[in-house]
Amino acid sequence: MTSALVTARSTAPAVFAGALSRPPPRRVDRLPRSVSPPTAAARPRATGRRRRLAAAEEDGAATTATTSEGDDEEEIPQIEIPERPEHVRVVDAFLPAADAVALRGVFDAHNDDPRRVHEHRFVWDYWHVPGQYTQLRTPAADYFPEEQFEALEEALLTYAREELGCSAMTPVWLSNYVDGMRQEIHADVPHGPFAFVLSLTNWDKRRFTGGETFLLRPETLDYWRGFETSSVVERGAVVQTVEPEFNRLTVFDPRIPHGVNVVEGTRDVREGRLVLHGWFMDLAPHFSGALTEATCEPALGEILPPLYEALGTLPRARGFLVVKVNVDANGRVTGTEWKADTLVPAPAPNLPDPTEVRDAILLEVAGTFMDATFPAAGAPGAVTVPFEFD
After folding, report:
1. Quick one: pLDDT at residue 37?
2. Is 330 helix (H, G, I), strand (E, B) or coil?
3. DSSP string computed for 25-92
4. Angle at Cα 79 formed by Cα 28 and Cα 225, nearest 5°?
5. Integer Cα distance of 28 and 390 in angstroms
6. Would you tell me which of 146, 241, 282, 301 could form a disulfide with 40, CB atoms 3.0–4.6 Å apart?
7. Which letter does DSSP use for residue 373 in this model?
8. What are 82-134's pLDDT values in tens digits?
9. How far apart are CA 286 and CA 161, in angstroms?
10. Per-residue pLDDT tens digits for 324-347
11. What's the mean pLDDT in 35-48?
């Protein structure tokens, strides 16, 4: 895979990163390029005035409660904490239907007659790594008409910015699988924080078996913690499968070992598994509504350094958090939303329950932003902030 990036049309600064370690605390000085350490004011947390408590609820979410000094109680909006990370996400009907059909139509037109010879028949790389990968692949940017590919690229990048806190992606591949082709189990850790697969497969009319993306379940990766001698363990309990239905976008944590089930039953590329795929990367904040990078820079310069310092005192975790901070016209934070969450506590002796570690980290991030104030912009807005933990 080439290392070239497709950069989003955004002026967002560099990654907001919060690398965690076990105590003793360490300060993380990776700040946006637009906020220099000498001018970033350290804003102490009002821990004497407010104390956050995480309480597990029946639906698996945790919320904050508040206490106050004296007799005056101050109500704070509740913060919902997901019970577990989300490693796989499925978005059906991702593209406008006409756009998805048009992309598929390009492939069908290039392969309408097996006897017809033209340049698009000779662009496929038969990629075979013994015991690991077998598929046909070609760079999507060269395969589709420029206008169609730009629309596809913009749809993917818009989703990446708004939902995943990513501002770029690797070059997109178009791959085809026919009889005997597959991907054996592997992980794509170096390529980016999120992998994606957008299917152009005529899944409902398929004449083959296999072709699903499979991923090890989190319970499998932590097998002995929940092991029960009374339970029968079969494939469905160990792996999760995602069918490549037409126009379905599958986004997943590439750290999870995954692969593609072997395709069997057709040697005709027109009937095979056809997918677009790549990786989202380059974490960066995203500003929407009335908020801009310029207006948010001073506030973020006060919010982030002490937040990084506080996160550095918590047990180590790995993965990514993306939080959307909603702000009203007066600059008051009205709520937070978790847009992406692949955070997993790192194994270590004498650590609290993993759920408690996650709760502490997510509460610190959300609570810090709930306490924050942004400049009044005269209309609502939002800033989406990604965090990397390693």
Report:
1. 28
2. coil
3. P-------TTS-GGG-------TTT---EEEE-TTS-EEEE---STT---------B-SS---EEEES
4. 75
5. 12
6. 301
7. B
8. 989 999 999 999 999 999 999 999 999 999 999 999 989 999 999 999 999 99
9. 6
10. 999 999 999 999 999 999 999 988
11. 29
Single out the residue in 254, 283, 312 at which a domain terminates. Answer: 283
226 and 334 belong to one structural domain = no
Per this entry, what is the length of the chain? 390
Range of the domain at 304: 6-46+284-389
280-299: pLDDT as tens digits: 999 999 999 999 999 999 99
User: Mean per-residue pLDDT for 55-67?
Assistant: 39
Inside any domain, residue 204: yes
CA distance 360 to 81: 10
* 334 φ/ψ angles, rounded to the nearest 5 degrees: -100, -10
Three-class DSSP category at 379: coil
Amino acid at 75: E
Q: What is the pTM of this model?
A: 0.81
| 271, 105 Cβ separation under 8 angstroms | no
- Residues 311/28, Cβ–Cβ less than 8 Å: yes
CA distance 77 to 175: 47
Claim to verify: residue 123 and residue 255 sit in the same structural domain: yes
